[in-house]
Amino acid sequence: MLCHNYAKQHVGLFAHIIITISALTILQDINFINNKPLGQIKHALL
Question: What are the boundaries of each domain within the chain?
Answer without folding.
Answer: 2-43
